[in-house]
Amino acid sequence: MSRETDPSVCEVNFDGLVGPTHNYSGLAHGNVASMSHEGLVANPREAALQGLEKMKSLMDAGYAQGVLPPQQRPDLGALRALGFTGDDARVLSRAAAEAPQLLRAVCSASTMWTANAATVTPSVDAADGRVHFTPANLQSSFHRYLEPATTGRVLGAMFRDERCFAHHPVLPATPAFADEGAANHTRLAGEHGEPGVHLYVYGRQAFGGDGVEPRRFPARQTLEASQAVARQHGLSEAQTVFAQQHPEAIDAGVFHNDVIAVGNGPVLLYHEYAFRDEQGTLEALRAKMATPLIPVRVPVEAVSLDDAVASYLFNSQLLSNPDGTMTLVVPGECQEREAVWRCLQDHLLAGNNPITEVVVKDVKQSMRNGGGPACLRLRVALSAAERAAVSGRVLLDDALHGELTAWVRRHYRDRLAPADLSDPALAHETLAALDELTGILELGSVYPFQR
Q1: Is the pLDDT of residue 1 over 60?
Q2: Which residues are catalytically annotated?
């Protein structure tokens, strides 16, 4: 049963800190940007500072902002489990020589895209009045499959008060329950403190279905995974809508729903090819939402699928303002595509909808690996009491931003090529950085090397 409206609830965007091993290995099949930038030299320091600048600017604009730490990389434990033996240097050199694709995978900094970290249900929608978390199993790709155990420890350390927060186990890591987290989940409501409706978007059905699926790239989310998460969180049929992502969009490089649609409050900004059954999805939302849905549709004539994927227009942050308007935070690539920029000015800002401001952010280091502003954050709606119950020092303020900026400048390299991943010094640098970071964030021992 849904809770009463709580006016103290606000959305906190927990952005992922880009890790010291940020590189371009082209690991994500179906992610066009990641595949096309494979082998380029990355700048981990610049990437982390770009992310911190985005966090700081949104905090300064009045939006609640939090921080999620990167994970331990390279994951030498994973390499040892796969048969590589010896000291760290030996394990790295053997992996580089015998299985370079595995070395690239265990060095991935993909945890910076925290939209994939988990699915979250706010307390206002939960029968027990607690915020619910389920870490995503990310079983579709090996480099991301390595994340959930640490993700669960981090979320447990941050949201540890059992009176306010509930944590659920990761779904079974099998293709039938492939779960990519909040990147395929949108909550719609009048305001954050009002009871909402949860839109779960999937690419395929594991059991049954009519077999209409993408042919070029894999569908990463299953209906069965989305249904299981909704059950874990105690959501009823009246609170949920399940919609299939358009197969043509997935084949164009839309590997997650948040690359083709973004929702906030009662607004759903989406591309014509976001959903296989566009009208059915909208009708289901309208039937279950207490506040009228405000759909903002972008037709393919205005923005092609190719332009949508290249610009990440829909992987933008849609943020609520106190006066009822909304701000759209877009990546700089949106300015580089004439059709996209024209759509933003003539279709969105000039349209009859609450979006009144577009803010451009440079997150190019992340974008080259296929992650825009929306990929970099996990949205958690929290009441005032729940914000006070958050453990650690993870809610951003000026002092924390300054310390994290200085930490990045001390520990991060300004150049990292895939060939550098076998350098044992990089592994040692990363462990030293993360050990210091857990002290700054006051999270305790969340990494394998600390346990």
Answers
A1: no
A2: 180, 256, 375
